[in-house]
């Protein structure tokens, strides 16, 4: 399976990410014009992991997103449901405790993490609300969630240009650098179908998280959402 459909069947999404694992980080750097590195730094600042804290990094892929939490002295668990991504991550980062897991059925006990974070993965989960409730379950009272996800540019003229880039320029660029360019057609379609910033904040609140708020990055191309467990 080279490309998942927008109904996001788990086996299709996992197979699609298995197919792009080898060049995933490189392709993302190219397609984002290097902005993924900046966005990862902003996620690390928002999570603000402290020494000794336990951080769950969901949709961690090859584990690259987990390294800042490890450097901060936290105990980080990178978790992903793509075995291909995890194998590539284990090859690159053998020290990380990479864990296979589905965001809607997490293999962890209640209230064990101080912070849960997911970057560019929530929109690939079939049951978004189920995943948000699971993240709430494994977070301790007073703990936090940080979500970094593609969103909706706030300036209308730029939004039009951005949409054109997604649907016209992104697939041919992906063809030149990705091991599975069809996956990036799905990427463009899934970004267009994803709710805007207030929409995701409402989903967080509905799942039981408190004080949801967001901050736009790159004029709203990406939004950084944060909320707390009561």
Task: Explain this structure.
This protein has a seven-stranded mixed beta sheet, with helices on both faces. With 230 residues, the chain is an alpha/beta fold. The radius of gyration is 16 Å and the shape is globular. The termini are far apart. Helices cover 44% and strands 20% of the residues. The chain has nine helices and seven strands.
Keywords:
230 residues, alpha/beta, 7-stranded mixed β-sheet, disordered N terminus
Brief overview:
It is built from nine helices and seven strands; from the N terminus they run αααβαβαββαβαααββ. It is an alpha/beta fold and 230 residues long.
Could you give the topology of this structure?
Elements: H1 10-20, H2 24-31, H3 35-47, E1 54-58, H4 67-71, E2 75-80, H5 83-92, E3 99-100, E4 113-119, H6 128-138, E5 139-150, H7 156-177, H8 182-193, H9 197-206, E6 210-217, E7 222-228
Parallel strand pairs: 1-2, 1-4, 2-3, 4-5
Antiparallel strand pairs: 5-7, 6-7
Helix pairs in contact: 2-7, 7-8
**How big a fraction of the residues is strand?**
15-25%
Indicate the overall shape. Answer: globular
Largest beta-sheet characterization? 7 strands, mixed
N- to C-terminal distance: 41 Å
Helix content: 40-55%
Number of helices: 9
As a whole number of angstroms, the C-alpha radius of gyration is: 16 Å
Organism: Streptomyces malaysiensis subsp. samsunensis
Function: Methyltransferase required for the conversion of demethylmenaquinol (DMKH2) to menaquinol (MKH2).
Keywords: Menaquinone biosynthesis, Methyltransferase, S-adenosyl-L-methionine, Transferase
EC number: 2.1.1.163
